[in-house]
Amino acid sequence: MKLFIPFVFLLFYFCVAGQDNKAHNFYLKSEKYLEKQNYKKAITFIEKAVLLENDSSSYHQMKATVLGLTGSYYDAVECVSRAIELNPKNAVCYLNRGVYYYQLQNLTKAKEDFDKAISLNEKLANAYSSRALVHLANNNASLGLQDLNEALKVDSTHAEAYLNRAGIYFYAEEFDRAIKDINNAVRLKPKRSDLYYSRGSIKGNMGKFQDAILDYNKAIKIDKKISDYYYSRGFAKEKAELYKEALKDYSKALKLNPKDGQAFYRRGLMKVKNGKTGCADFLKAIELGVPEAAEDMRKHCP
Questions:
Q1: Closest listed residue to residue 201, CA positions, set 191, 187, 215
Q2: Does the pTM exceed 0.90?
């Protein structure tokens, strides 16, 4: 079964804006377009602000934010580093640079920046939550758990910290504790589809397939365009012996992600369960790197 507990954390924060009126107006326009996810216009206006006031830490940080949201992490690091030069006591700037380094898989520099952010502001919950991701990436769940506990001590409304801690409990097979944390995250962020999906994955691993299906239903109601949601619901339906419905979900998953070898494989199995031939799906699964499909190919496709 494909499992997915997303480690999600708040990526970007803003430093205090500059004082030049014209530059500040450009900054505000950039912020407006950023909220609308119009990154092209957002970067255009913040670059105008930077040209007018190059010594504003907040403008360089805003530019870094837009660049980060478009995946330009190297450029984002350069911009936020300039912001830090201008305002070396701003913990948020170190936090943001740590996030960019984390995205670039430079875990050493990411941790250094998260450490610095915490040293400057011990109440910055997201710095603990973000540093926890570095520990988890380094296979140190114990330190990761410590940081997530600290994040929640600082801010008990930190949904991402609950989600990340649920991930630790999940992989430790402490499913009841994982469910409790996911429930807290859902309470705080009831419109987050990934939370219902994660809770469904946990319930599925507990053998509670009908309950898992209900959570996958909620996730899909919020976001109908994620293939993993349909795949996982299909798998739960398969385990609940709802083979016709499972077949439909695997087909929906493949419509969204036609290169999902596991979905081809499981759909082939469901076709066999429903008295049809799954040979084409088994063959496609093999082509996409699912070797276990070969045995079913030999068994069901003479």
A1: 215
A2: no
